[in-house]
Amino acid sequence: MLRDITLGQYYQGSSLIHRLDPRFKVIATLIYLIAMFIVDSFIGMGICFLGIMAVIAVSKVPVSFIMRGMKPIFFILLLTFILNLFMTRGEPLFQWWIFKVSREGLIMATFVAIRLILLIIGSSVLTLTTKPISLTDGMESLLKPFKVVGLPAHEIAMMMSIALRFIPTLIEETDKIMKAQQSRGADFESGNIFQRGKALIPILVPLFISAIQIAKDLALAMESRCYRGGEGRTRMKPMRLARIDYIGMIFLGIFLIIVICDRFVY
Fold first, then answer.
1. Please, which residues have CB within 8 angstroms of residue 115's CB and are 6 or more apart in sequence?
2. Total-model pTM
3. What does the pLDDT look like over 153-170, one tens digit per residue?
4. How far is Cα 190 from Cα 196, in angstroms, rounded to an integer?
5. Fewer CB within 10 Å, N side or C side of the chain?
6. What is the rounded distance in angstroms from the CA atom of residue 32 to the CA atom of residue 20?
7. Which letter does DSSP use for residue 191 in this model?
8. The dihedral of CA 240, 242, 248, 254: what is its sign?
9. What is the pLDDT of residues 223-246, one digit of tens each?
10. Backbone angles phi, psi at 92, to 5 degrees
């Protein structure tokens, strides 16, 4: 299941989405995430669904690869669905003992579950179609105007990029530790929730030590290459907006107008 996590991974490709300027993709993703919270109807949610499906189709990233990343968070989705189902008051549809399902609860639970799924898919598309170094440069460029108030743009962008880059590494390391412990007789499946939590200690301790070692190795590698921060650094390929980015802005503007109209007009 750990290998099913796709967040932070890059899917190699040469599609139009891959070639978009990373700054535009970061802004487009933020607008998409905001739009997901603006819509309050299934029609608006359907518009967001069609929009992200169109982006996935153009990016040529397999839908099965993206949906594979939903497996590790299935429990969170299920828990969110159940909480909204039973805790939202309204017209009762079903009742057993202290559990009551209302019409409003069913609608709210379905709506929130779909929203979470589309939020995760939208975030995954950004990392799947953008190289980590390009994502770092894009975020740094967007944060650069905030330097006037003392915001360390380069350092923040670097930390975010490193965090995303090492998610797959830590997942792979966790998988290795779990297999090593299971080969020694460790059981992570049986027992109650407290016994399962206690069984995770042999995983968390070596994982924590491994993460510290990885961080030390990364710091040493950066120092050996005379890394001194973002001041005075140049890029081999400066970022420039191309025609495809302006076309993307037009489609993004149309999408945003449709979402706003659905929320505030209809």
1. 36, 37, 45
2. 0.75
3. 777 877 877 777 777 777
4. 7
5. C
6. 16
7. S
8. positive
9. 888 777 666 666 777 788 889 999
10. -70, 135
